[in-house]
Please model this.
Amino acid sequence: MRKATARTYTWLYRDSTDDAGDTWLEVAFVRGLSPDEALARLAGEKELYAAPAEGGTVVFCGELSEHPLRLAAMASAGTAAAVVMITVGDDLFAYYEDGRLITKFSLFSYDRREGVDPDRLGAEVEDLRLHLTGESNDFPSDYVARALALADRATGVRLPRQ
Model:
């Protein structure tokens, strides 16, 4: 299987960006669950949509849903889930296995990551150029698509272009 790149998810990044240039995306890639299984684990949560994907399911969280990190912890029991959350006021990436937070970080401050194994995805983060050292002004403009590619790589779940 080819590794996901920013180009793999440029379409989703564009579909999640409004006319003002603001991106609104809260999504969890969940390995090994069907959409029905993922939604059953998240029963009672509001405004969720689960799309079938290669290797699992991608759950899209609506504005009124519970916090996506809590949802990812619930969905990852016995499997893995990665969350990408980008809004005007927040950005983060988190990876869970069996309900445990493995690593979590702001897309703009990778150095401040936390979790039981915060360095687990370090090579993939570097390969996708999501971590730039120092006060670099050339942070990639397609960082959302790169974060989605990281979720794909971490979980092995590939969302085909809709």
In short: Residues 143-155 form the longest helix (13 residues).
